[in-house]
User: Which sequence fits this backbone?
């Protein structure tokens, strides 16, 4: 059987935490942030965990030795 390949787009966007959660960067932080309030920019800092309903799909897309 051929090996499972890692989905490269998923690998760039998610990483698994030590407890197995899928962590990702918040949306809306790339550019055009001058119109966003300071409070909103502050809340979007750091990484957030993806919804648990998406976890199975994300882990499968990260198959192989990508994490």
Assistant:
């Amino acid at each position: 059987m051929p090996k499972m390949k890692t989905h490269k787009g998923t690998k760039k966007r998610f990483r698994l935490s030590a407890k197995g959660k899928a962590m990702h960067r918040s949306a809306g932080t790339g550019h055009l942030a001058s119109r966003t309030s300071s409070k909103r920019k502050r809340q979007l800092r750091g990484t957030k965990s993806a919804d648990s309903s998406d976890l199975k799909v994300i882990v499968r897309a990260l198959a192989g030795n990508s994490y």
Remarks:
- The CA atoms of residues 2 and 64 lie 12 Å apart.
- Helices lie at 8-13, 38-43, 55-61.
- The chain has a mean pLDDT of 91.
- The two ends are 22 Å apart (CA to CA).
